[in-house]
Design goal:
mainly alpha, two-stranded antiparallel sheet, two-stranded antiparallel ribbon, 73% helix, disordered C terminus
Length: 298
């Protein structure tokens, strides 16, 4: 494998892993606060891709404007899901919230089929992101492959700053330790939980938009496989840990891309590697790479 091909695979793996990591961060934030796996998160990811499609293709808005509108609308949908499906079940047994999460996921998918139709729709890639850049040694990269991890790392870095350097972030971490004590100290728990849902949905929207650019089409069930793999990444990194979710996503991306790069005959089994990784981590380190105790942190 020459240098050019290796660099191409490396950037592809970094890009894919960054997308998994962004979605995984949304899973881990909600779990860290509510001990709830938000199974509708992959469908929020799908909505972000659809919103940017309609903004740019149907209504012919500039890409930058379309992205902002898509993120805002997707964040609103995430807040709506929390308000309707999860908030009334705050005091209910966790199994009730889990069933509600599964129900919301099916609802969003089928709602998308009815409203958007089940037909895949093409997404136009901005030429500026697709024009190859030549580097020394014959390496050719497209700007999109570089942009995706840069945006992902910047967003996760901003999230870490919010969690550890602001009062809302302090409140989130306090809720992850003890929600009742935090409520008694005067913190508006529901508002902080809504903030976590909003931030996670915004990250999922950005991931969905970049996924639609990377694989230029949208369809109602496009969030299922990335959502499941992002959940695997969150578990692998240590669910409840934001850095762990990002690291888990990166590792999963590299496992997928590099396994196919070095063993092309196994390309049909690339999805199986993700689930094998999940089985191995559950067998040998159930708390994940950076996990210590599941109740400790976000």
């Amino acid at each position: 494998m020459n240098l050019n091909i290796f660099v191409q695979h490396f950037i592809n793996a970094l890009s894919l892993g960054s997308l998994y990591g962004l979605v995984a961060v949304g899973y881990t934030m909600v779990y860290g606060i509510l001990r709830l796996i938000n199974f509708a998160h992959g469908d929020i990811f799908m909505l972000g891709a659809y919103f940017v499609y309609f903004a740019t293709i149907v209504y012919h808005l500039p890409w930058a404007v379309g992205v902002v509108i898509a993120v805002i609308l997707t964040t609103f949908c995430g807040l709506l899901v929390d308000r309707i499906a999860y908030k009334p079940l705050r005091e209910a047994p966790r199994i009730s919230a889990l069933i509600s999460a599964i129900g919301v996921s099916f609802f969003i998918e089928n709602f998308a089929v009815v409203v958007f139709t089940g037909m895949p729709r093409p997404v136009v890639q901005p030429p500026i992101l697709m024009k190859p850049i030549e580097f020394s040694g014959g390496v050719r990269l497209i700007p999109l492959g570089i942009l995706v991890p840069v945006v992902a790392f910047a967003l996760v870095g901003g999230l870490m700053w919010l969690l550890y350097c602001t009062k809302p972030g302090l409140a989130m971490r306090a809720i992850s330790f003890d929600i009742e004590t935090t409520r008694m100290m005067g913190v508006s728990v529901n508002k902080i939980i809504a903030l976590a849902f909003g931030l996670g949905s915004a990250l999922a929207a950005v991931a969905g938009i970049m996924w639609a650019l990377r694989y230029p089409r949208v369809e109602p069930f496009m969030g299922m496989t990335p959502g499941i793999k992002a959940f695997i990444a969150a578990v692998f990194g240590g669910i409840g840990s934001v850095p762990g979710a990002m690291i888990g996503g990166l590792i999963l991306g590299f496992v997928e891309i590099m396994s196919v790069a070095f063993f092309p005959t196994l390309s049909g089994y690339k999805d199986a590697f993700a689930f094998l990784l999940l089985i191995m981590i559950l067998l040998f380190r159930p708390t994940g790479l950076l996990g210590e105790k599941l109740e400790d942190k976000i």
